[in-house]
Every structure is written in C-alpha cells, then in structure tokens.
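Input chain follows. Return structure tokens only.
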Amino acid sequence: MDIIRTFADMNSLSFWKRALIYLFWLAVPLFLSRCKKKEKLSVSVPDPFVFYQLAQDIARAESDLYYITDLIRKVQNLPSRRLTESREDELPPCARVEIDTLQRRVIIDFGSEGCVDRDSLLRQGRIIADFSGNRWGEPGARVLITTDSFFVEDRFHLLERVLFTEASQGSGAPIFRDTVQRHRMVMSSGTLDWRSIRFYQFAEGYQTPTEPADDTFFVQGEGSGTSRSGHPFIILTLDPLKFASACRYPYSLKGELKLRMQETDILLSYDPQGNGACDNLISIRAGSLQPVTVRL
C-alpha cells in the first residue's frame, strides 16, 4: 500500500509540473502579444505639439498671403509710373516700388538688408506682380504674383499664386479668386508646403477705391499640403476670415479654420476673445484637448 501511495504521489506531482509548464508556455505568447499591442498603441498616438505647430504655421502663411494681396491693391492707387519712394500710409517707406505700365508689371522691393513695416516684422526680397486681361478689379482681370528671395523674419517664402477677378457681387464689388499654386514656407526646423483656392469678397470699402485703408474682406476656401513634421493635411473654412486694411497686424480679425492631420481635427480660431479685435492672438484646439491661446 505504501508503495502504491508513493507511486500515486509521484504521478500526481509529475502531472502538476507538466500542467504548470504547459500553462507557462501558453501564457508567454499572450503576454508578448499584449506588450506588442501596447507598444503599437503608444507609437500611433500623435504628438500634440505638431498640431499646434501646424496651426501657427497656417496662421502665419495666411497672414503673409493677405499682406501681399493688400500691398498689390494699394499699389494700384499710386499715380506714378516708376517710383523710388512710397506713401507711408500705403507702403512701408523703406520699400522701393516700380510700376511699369508697358509691361504691366509691379515690383515691390524690400531690399537685401530688410525693411520693417507697421506690424514690426522684418521683410526682405521682392514681390513681383504681372497683370494681364482686363483692368484690375474688372471681371476677367488676372495677376500672377511671385516672390524672389522673399523673407518674413526668418521664414523664406517661395510663392506662385494667381488672383483672378470674377463677376461682381450685387453691390458691384468684385470677387477675387485666389489660386495658390505653390506656397513653400521654409523655416530652420522644416518646411510647410501647401496650395489652396480661396475667394476674397469685399465687406466694406468698395465705394471708396482711392482709400484702401477702409477696406475689409471676407476670405474663405480650402487647401491641402504637407506640414513641417512631414504629415499631409487639409484645410476647410468653417467661418470666413475677416481682414481689415486698417489693422496694424495682417492677421484675420475673426473667423475659424478646420485643419485635419493624422486623423485629428484642429480648430484654428482668429478671435479667441470674441471681440474681433485687431491683434495677433489665435486659439488652437487639437482633438479633445482644451483650447490654447497663442500670440503670433
């Protein structure tokens, strides 16, 4: 009996050892697979910094585009054919402006050392506008705008865009279709490369063409491109941007854009305080995160 009991105990011990070893090897793949899943999940979570970076880059790029548009409009009111100085209320006094009516070309040169405008930003290089079609502001008018060695602060701009005057609104004010064929903004930490189609519509000031300082515009459209971080994105207008020539800063007074990158919606608001003030404040909300107010 003792021999039989001892044999049974040994048999039972061997069984449990085998069972534990079997369970151990069964658990190892499950544990490893869970680790891999956690690792994959951690890698796929985007860094919020790239969302805030994209929103600020787009806000600055939109600002630079409007600034150039505003300059081209103001130059149309200068009476001389070729000028070496410009009116301070229309263009920065340090900029050299050339208007050639035969070639229908305007060149605004900020120089190689740079020129500071009322927004306190340093600009260098040239903006070139070539006109064709009907007279500026009339349906069918076209202007090709390019840049040459153009910088805003430390941002290098390579730009090619076309402003085309479409049929007028009911008030008689023209509608400008802005086709940004290429806008590359190169910075020390990367490059924003994007394109868009937008529409400029007069809100106020059309009845006083010789006083461009009282003009305000609504701008809306859509675009797409590649961010500084190398990710593709798209842009949609949720609420038209409102720009005012009288504002010291070439930023929108109000309006909202929706950017989408890495399956995340980024809301860019130009009026975080809700008062339509002339300032350089924006609000950024990335996904479900709380909005962040940024001074450009």
